[in-house]
Write a structure and sequence with these properties.
Order of helices and strands: HHHHHHHEEHEHEHHEHHEHHHHHH
Distance between the termini: 50 Å
Helix content: 55-70%
Number of helices: 19
Bound molecules: arginine
């Protein structure tokens, strides 16, 4: 209700020709989108300049009017950039705020800008341009995160840590290998981003309200001017479609989910009980009562932002699911979800990139944990298969008995005397001890994509050539 209530009594100057009076105050409040769609001002102005230029080129408006329009729009752009522009809720949205200001600046020529155009294709264009730019930013941010992981993976290609399943110690792996798992995940996210950019690279402007227009417009010209590959092919679909926003949100939700799993690991690893990592002061906070504490707040917030992003995806899917073709005002609810998710994702990627670059890896603690929990039991079973010719199922059984013995004696597998091993299976020789260390275990896993340092280095090189 920022505007004077007397203003709300008059009918709208943009569409109010058939209206005797203005909207109820509540109608104005529920209808207005300027509070959030002002974010689209640069895209709106860019779109209008391309549209006016095309209209003049096609002889639909005069060159003089086009020049006035373009000049006026440039003025408005700098007014908004500098904060001098006054947005009015009475004018509903960004499109009408700009057009009304244009009329104030250049007079009647402003009224010619909306020829062969509707707010339906206008908003589809503005929002698409915004989402496309956001996808390009996301692609860059993911590249930075992948680069941070590649550096840490290289540094720790040989650092042994426990690999987990069910969060129980499973088999030793290298920290470099674990880092490269995230490179794969964020690499897929980036591939999805690139694919989405390709998908949405079509210009909506010229679809008009829904049916196209009788004016001799050139949609290829505006598409080219706005950096799109080509114009959209169906005017009804063009003003009904928000797939590009849904695609952005689903990509964001998957990426945020990856970030959240990483955040969860950071939270666990930084506890004194695990002690695998030490977070930098820059990405943690202290407690106001417990002086010893260092809390992984940044990681926790990255984990929590995922809730917002996933919520935005579900919200927009729900808005869209019951809409008949073509445009319905429901679709105005698309923007806040996308803006919020975009801000959350950008922040989460930036915070995570900083954390990964800064974190101290406690290789001694990782190695100690890697050797506990009989993590090389599979190596013993594999050795029995290879060296003693046992079928794997029998080797598994023998190894189970060896683990039970070690557990009973409270020692590691490598500490069991040979005689006691041979009492369980006579084929065991002293050569087996060379295979029970965590280093030997990881070095042996040279299968493609395996955890051996030699293999991890190959994967790092593969990604470096593609990042
Ligand atoms: N503010 C509107 C939106 O975001 C712009 C399009 C309005 N179109 C209309 N026919 N009322 O969706």
């Amino acid at each position: 209700m920022a505007d004077g209530s007397s203003e709300t009594k008059s009918s709208n100057q943009m569409w109010g020709g058939r209206f005797a009076s203005g909207p109820d105050a509540i109608m104005e409040e529920i209808n207005a989108s300027i509070g959030f769609d002002k974010k689209l001002y640069a895209q709106d102005i860019r779109g209008s300049i391309a549209h006016a230029t095309m209209l003049a080129h096609q002889g639909i408006i005069s060159a003089e009017d086009k020049d006035k329009i373009v000049h006026g729009l440039d003025t408005i752009l700098s007014e908004i950039d500098s904060g001098a522009f006054e947005f009015s809720r009475r004018l509903e949205d960004i499109h009408m705020n700009i057009e009304a200001r244009l009329a104030a600046l250049i007079g009647p020529a402003a009224g010619r800008l909306h020829t062969a155009r509707s707010r339906n294709d206008q908003v589809a264009l503005d929002f698409r341009l915004w989402v496309k730019e956001e996808l390009q930013k996301t692609e860059k941010a993911l590249t930075g995160l992948i680069a941070a992981f590649l550096d840490r993976a290289e540094e720790h290609a040989e650092t042994v840590m426990p690999g987990f399943t069910h969060l129980q110690t499973a088999q030793p792996v290298t920290f470099g290998h674990h880092c490269m798992a995230y490179v794969e995940m964020f690499g897929r996210d980036r591939a999805r981003v690139r694919h989405a950019i390709e998908h949405m690279d079509e210009s909506p402007i010229g679809a008009a309200a829904l049916a196209g227009t009788g004016f001799p417009i050139d949609r290829h010209m505006t598409a080219k001017a706005l950096g799109f590959r080509e114009p959209t092919r169906n005017s009804i679909d063009t003003v009904s479609d928000r797939d590009f926003a849904l695609e952005f949100l689903s990509i964001a939700a998957i990426a945020a989910t990856h970030l959240s799993r990483l955040a969860e690991e950071i939270v666990i690893w930084s506890t004194p009980q695990f002690g695998f990592i030490r977070l930098s002061d820059a990405f943690s906070t202290g407690s106001s009562i417990m002086p010893q504490k260092k809390n992984p707040d940044a990681a926790e917030l990255v984990r929590a932002k995922t809730g917002r992003v996933n919520g935005s995806l579900v919200a927009l899917l729900t808005v869209m699911k019951g809409l008949p073709l073509a445009y319905s005002k429901d679709m105005q609810e698309d923007k806040e979800q996308v803006f919020d998710a975009a801000e959350s994702l950008e922040l989460a990627i930036a915070a995570m990139t900083g954390m990964i670059r800064d974190v101290t890896i406690r290789a001694d603690r990782m190695k100690a944990a890697a050797g506990s929990g009989y993590s090389t039991a599979t190596d013993l079973a594999d050795w029995l298969v290879r060296e003693a010719g046992l079928p794997f199922r029998d080797a598994h059984h023998v190894t189970g008995r060896v683990v039970a013995l070690a557990e009973q004696k409270g020692c590691d597998l490598a500490d069991l005397p040979l005689a006691e091993l041979q009492a369980i299976n006579s084929a065991i020789t002293d050569k087996v001890y060379g295979f029970l260390t965590v280093e030997a275990s990881v070095a042996s896993r040279t299968s493609f994509g395996g955890t051996a340092p030699s293999e991890v280095r190959k994967q790092i090189a593969w990604w470096r050539a593609r990042n």
